Structure formats: C-alpha cells, structure tokens
Amino acid sequence: MKKTYHLCLSAGNEVMFRDLEDYNRGFNCFALALYKTGSTGLVESFMSTHTHQLVQTTDPKELMYHFRLPYSMYFNHKYHRSGKLGEQVHFTLEVIGHHHAVAAASYVLRNCIHHGAAPIPYAYPHCSANAIFRKEMGKFHNEPALPARSVHKFIGRRAEFPSNYIMNESGVFLRESVLDIPQVENLFVTPRSFNYYMNRKSGEEWEEEQKKDQNDVSPITLASIEKGVNMHGIDKMIIFENGKADYRKISDIDLCTELDNLSRNRYGRNSVYQLSDDEKHRIASELYYERHLNKAQIRRCLAIL
C-alpha cells in the first residue's frame, strides 16, 4: 500500500543543478522515476544543492534510486565528474494525516523563500507552485508542447513514459501532466486557502494545527523538512521568510554558468570539475576580493569540496 513521504536529497556543499538544462533534466528524471515505480508525485522543489519531494509510494528507497542514478550519470558525463552525486542516504519522513500533509506540501513549495531564492513561491520556476489552481490563480498561458519525436532528446532514447506526460519546448515535462495536481488542490480545498498557506509565516500555529490529526506523531516543521540540508541555518531561513533577502544578488545557477564558461574560455576545460586546485583558488580569490561574493557560494559553485 502506498504511503505519503517527504523525500530530500542533498549534495551538501556541492551544486547539483548548475544550469537550466540541469534543473529540467532533474525534474524529468524524477517524473520517469515516478512512472517506473508506480508512485504518485504531489509537490516538489529543486534547489541548487538539494531537492524536496512529497510523494506517495510503496518504496521510497527504490523511487529515489531511480531518480538519482540517471541524473548522476547525466551530471557526471556533462561535467566530466566522477563519483556519487549527493549524500550517501537521502532523508525520508513519513507524513501521516491531513494537516501534516498540508504542512509538508507548504514547506516544500515555500522552500525557495527559506533559501532566499525568491520572495514568493510563484516567482520560483523550479517547483510546482504554479501548477496548482492554475486557472483560478489567473495562469491561463498554455506552453506549446514538444513534438513526440523530439522528447527523447531530453530524457534519453531508452526512457519510457506514459502518454499523459507532456513536454514543453524547453525540454521539461509539464508539472501538471506529471503530478497529481487534483489531489493537491483537494488538500488545500480552495485557491484562497492555498494562497494563504503559501504566504503563512512559520511558527507554533503550524504545530497546533497539526495536533488536530490526533496521530501522535511529531509535527512537520521547517527544521524537520530541512534536516540534513547544509545550505542555510534555520535562523537565516526565518530571516529570508520575513522578506529580508537580497534578490538582486547573483544566483547559483547564474554563477555556475559563468564559471563553467570561464573554465572553457580561460583554461580550456569542460567545467570547473577539471580545474586544478590552484586554478579554483585563484578564481575564488577574484570572486571574493573583486566582486565580494559570499564565500560559501563561491566554494559550492567552484566545487571546492
């Protein structure tokens, strides 16, 4: 029997998704893993260093295996990297009860806020927030579908997927064609309620609400959702949640793209993974002293492990 789980895969201090193609391939791998394991996807969010997914499955370990293996192979081949991508064991949390599910889904969709990547979930493209209540939220635009003959270019020739999966011209499956959006909408009941939860602040009210489930399990909190993610501390995430983030600063995706181009143009390498330690530290010094970028961001985007 399927159970509901929150899954989180973290790469620690390493970037898992370096450009738009990576984000798209990551979601495609997740979509194919859902189909291969007979699982149901509810909501998800892909950040540069980690992923969050709320799913219903009989075997979360198998689902994560079929997601991370093909993506790791793609990533290693593209960036001339070797070894396992991501932590040894992904984080799994069983979600029990209606209010627990609402809290888990909300925290997953609001992940971009807690990491200072966007001021609201709807402004972040790498999560499923904009697939929920699309019509009611005024999102009428339908993306052109990619011809079926071109789909395998973005998922591999041998990949199997159901007929209801639709890919757009950017090479990523539409989230509303992959995920069980009607079930998520039933979870939040109305667009107004959904919008309320997307803007609700973290705090004890979330925990009190989850007690209504009367299932004698620990409440879903920001700390439990982010367990194992080494990117920002809880205090910092609360600051970001309160709107005190600089959204003008360079993002990981932009910095990684810039650094991989620099590796090719200045050093004749395919990516930062082929740079020597001396070359990486020389670039890091330039970024820190000349552009005043954050040290942690510099290290993860340069893959200084």
Structural summary, described in words:
With 305 residues, the chain is α+β, with helices and mostly antiparallel strands. The chain has 13 helices and four strands. It has a four-stranded antiparallel beta sheet with strand order 2-3-1-4, with helices on both faces. Helix 1 packs antiparallel against helix 2. The longest helix is centred in the N-terminal third of the chain and has 20 residues. The protein starts with a strand and ends with a helix. The model has no long low-confidence stretch (mean pLDDT 93).
List the SSEs and their pairings:
Layout: E1 3-10, H1 20-37, E2 40-46, E3 50-57, H2 60-79, E4 91-94, H3 98-109, H4 111-114, H5 175-178, H6 181-188, H7 191-199, H8 204-210, H9 222-225, H10 234-241, H11 252-267, H12 277-291, H13 295-301
Antiparallel strand pairs: 1-3, 1-4, 2-3
Helix pairs in contact: 1-2
Biggest sheet strand line-up: 2-3-1-4
- What proportion of the residues form beta strands (DSSP E)? 5-15%
H and E string: EHEEHEHHHHHHHHHHH
Span from first to last CA?
Answer: 40 Å
